[in-house]
Amino acid sequence: MNQINFIQLIGFGPKGWGLTLLGGAAVTVAVATSGMLLGIVLGTLGAWAKVARRRPLADIADAYTTVVRGLPDLLIIYIIYFGGSAVLTWLKPLLGSTGFVNFPGFLAGTIAIGVISGAQSTEVLRGGFNAVNKGEIEAARACGMRRELRFRRIVAPLTLRYALPGMGNIWLSALKESSLLSVTGLAELMRQTEVGSGSTRLPFDFYAAAALIYFALCTVSTLAIQRFERHYSRNVAARA
């Protein structure tokens, strides 16, 4: 790989693929962020169901985490993408038209990443809650705090403090899982890399560029996660 040719290839000149790759990286971040937000919602509900131990909600949460963590990520993506396409195709005649309908790749990716990260977040948030000193919760209850205020001021911040490292790992996994969404035709980073590789017949150059972009995304994410961890642990460090 010639260094000058590589820079020109991934640059922003007339023959460069820089804008295309950056556009793919932007889609990667967008779908990973959307999926992670959905996963946090699902994880919060799942963790609450397990902690509260209310049947049948706890059984549903157990089944959800067991099934999702037992299936390959790519299989989940296929099920959501092709399953969604089948449902839309089945519904289309009800609207007065026929033909196959593709499920939107971005929506399929968001749901897939959300379902996968949600199962992982359920266990991370449950573990974070169990790590909270129950004496602090009892003290807040003794002071007359209402349940909503107690959750907002005591339970949620302390749970997040213990769960942040695990949630950070889930975010990094979501970034990497987004590369599997190229099978749905979504124009994320890996898909654009495959297109560029096939068009120029320079696969090593493009996959090396993609690796650098993924590394940059993960590095920035890691620094941000570490900053959040320091922020939520500052009082602990001060007391220590």
UniProtKB/TrEMBL annotation:
<keyword id="KW-1133">Transmembrane helix</keyword>
<dbReference type="InterPro" id="IPR000515">
    <property type="entry name" value="MetI-like"/>
</dbReference>
<dbReference type="Pfam" id="PF00528">
    <property type="entry name" value="BPD_transp_1"/>
</dbReference>
<keyword id="KW-1003">Cell membrane</keyword>
<feature type="transmembrane region" description="Helical">
    <location>
        <begin position="206"/>
        <end position="225"/>
    </location>
</feature>
<keyword id="KW-0812">Transmembrane</keyword>
<dbReference type="InterPro" id="IPR010065">
    <property type="entry name" value="AA_ABC_transptr_permease_3TM"/>
</dbReference>
<feature type="transmembrane region" description="Helical">
    <location>
        <begin position="97"/>
        <end position="116"/>
    </location>
</feature>
<keyword id="KW-0997">Cell inner membrane</keyword>
<dbReference type="GO" id="GO:0022857">
    <property type="term" value="F:transmembrane transporter activity"/>
</dbReference>
<feature type="domain" description="ABC transmembrane type-1">
    <location>
        <begin position="25"/>
        <end position="225"/>
    </location>
</feature>
<feature type="transmembrane region" description="Helical">
    <location>
        <begin position="20"/>
        <end position="49"/>
    </location>
</feature>
<feature type="transmembrane region" description="Helical">
    <location>
        <begin position="154"/>
        <end position="172"/>
    </location>
</feature>
<keyword id="KW-0472">Membrane</keyword>
<dbReference type="InterPro" id="IPR051613">
    <property type="entry name" value="ABC_transp_permease_HisMQ"/>
</dbReference>
<protein>
    <submittedName>
        <fullName>ABC transporter permease</fullName>
    </submittedName>
</protein>
<feature type="transmembrane region" description="Helical">
    <location>
        <begin position="70"/>
        <end position="91"/>
    </location>
</feature>
<comment type="similarity">
    <text>Belongs to the binding-protein-dependent transport system permease family. HisMQ subfamily.</text>
</comment>
<dbReference type="InterPro" id="IPR035906">
    <property type="entry name" value="MetI-like_sf"/>
</dbReference>
<keyword id="KW-0813">Transport</keyword>
<dbReference type="GO" id="GO:0043190">
    <property type="term" value="C:ATP-binding cassette (ABC) transporter complex"/>
</dbReference>
